[in-house]
User: Which sequence fits this backbone?
């Protein structure tokens, strides 16, 4: 039976969390092995994304202590999405199914068994989906909902309230690895693969140690990357606004000529200045938006490697 599991865990400055994560994931593997649901040589792969603390030293220590711990050290910090990709592609070579989860363990490891049951039933992709966002602040909850609605409006296929906690079969990961873009948004790519999918639902927990590695600026950057990597509707939207403004300008010109012909000319310095400022700001915004897409093209056409592996512990 093809039931060798790899749990892929991207890590960045997680020295406080790793001892807790290692123990919990070890217990998960032991429980699943005891029930015969995964192979005895199933493993956890930690991916060190250029940490500045003792994360890699801890990984080396856990690797020497536990036969189920493996490690992958990237040469420098490349970001969560690339680190996760490196772990999935590497672990795929020696696993039948892979579960990705963050090192903070805010995602519920208890539902991994349900994921594996759905994999055994024929699913290639099983999404871990949050039941609700009660633990989030009002700001974060509101902005998250707005983000998902905006993605849907832009035509991007995503799973509502799903981050990067998911199970993927080997062939799903192999298909994912064929997507070579530099502007990587995994949550948008996985639904495009087209394999049989299902969801499991859980309540997200609080982080018990360390600090969040996704502050507001990184969340906004990821959101913007997700929109612009999968949709050109923002450019179409700006073009539509431009057409509407041109139409109003023509109407205003006709009105001005009629007013001039009838002698009803009124000085409009304020409205003129406001119009110039508005159109100037709109032009700068449009140029900047197009520039964002051109910048993405610039990054893509260079075909630079997305990550480099410095060390590997099997």
Assistant:
């Amino acid at each position: 039976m093809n039931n060798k599991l790899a749990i892929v865990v991207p890590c960045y400055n997680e020295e406080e969390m790793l001892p807790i994560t290692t123990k919990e994931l070890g217990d998960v593997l032991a429980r699943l092995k005891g029930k015969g649901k995964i192979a005895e040589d199933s493993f956890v792969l930690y991916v060190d994304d250029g940490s500045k603390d003792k994360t890699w030293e801890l990984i080396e220590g856990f690797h020497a202590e536990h036969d189920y711990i493996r490690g992958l050290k990237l040469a420098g910090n490349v970001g969560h999405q690339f680190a996760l990709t490196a772990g999935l592609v590497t672990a795929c070579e020696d696993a039948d199914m892979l579960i990705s989860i963050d090192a903070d363990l805010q995602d519920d490891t208890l539902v991994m068994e349900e994921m594996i049951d759905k994999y055994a039933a024929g699913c290639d992709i099983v999404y871990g989906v949050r039941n609700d966002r009660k633990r989030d602040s009002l700001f974060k909850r509101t902005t998250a909902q707005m983000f998902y609605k905006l993605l849907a409006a832009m035509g991007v296929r995503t799973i509502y309230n799903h981050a990067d906690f998911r199970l993927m079969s080997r062939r799903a990961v192999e298909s994912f690895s064929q997507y070579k873009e530099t502007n990587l948004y995994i949550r948008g790519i996985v639904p495009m693969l087209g394999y049989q999918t299902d969801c499991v639902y859980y309540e997200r927990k609080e982080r018990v140690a360390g600090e969040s590695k996704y502050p507001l600026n990184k969340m906004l950057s990821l959101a913007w990357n997700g929109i612009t990597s999968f949709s050109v509707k923002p450019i179409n939207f700006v073009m539509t606004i431009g057409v509407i403004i041109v139409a109003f300008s023509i109407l205003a010109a006709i009105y001005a000529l009629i007013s001039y012909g009838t002698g009803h000319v009124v000085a409009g310095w304020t409205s003129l200045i406001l119009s110039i400022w508005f159109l100037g700001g709109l032009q700068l915004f449009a140029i900047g938006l197009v520039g964002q897409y051109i910048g993405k093209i610039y990054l893509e056409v260079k075909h630079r490697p997305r990550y480099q592996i410095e060390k590997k512990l099997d």
Observations:
- The two ends are 22 Å apart (CA to CA).
- The chain has a mean pLDDT of 82.
- The domain at 5-151+158-210+305-313 is CATH 3.90.550.10 (Spore Coat Polysaccharide Biosynthesis Protein SpsA; Chain A).
- DSSP finds ten helices and eight strands in the chain.
